[in-house]
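User: Fold this; tokens only.

Assistant: Input:
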Amino acid sequence: MLACYVGVTTLFLDMFRPVHAGMSRMAAAFSLIGIAVPTADTLLPLATTPYLACKIHGEGYGVTLVFFGVYRLLPVFGTRRLGTTTRTAAPAPTGMIA
């Protein structure tokens, strides 16, 4: 699952780069930090007791949510501030709207 997040991060990085390159890179950095925290939490049970590992995993998950929240909000604020919208990948089908 975390590998899929890396793929989505690179897709969003490429998609939002024309809108605002700096904000796109900052969002990617927040995403990668958010991916690194659960990765470290996955390896933690190997070194500690199960109780401590579960407690730290729960707190790490909360930290991850903060980073993913910032990652998802940065492109929204960037497009709203610049007054631009993202382009769709394919044109809308014709003849379907009456």
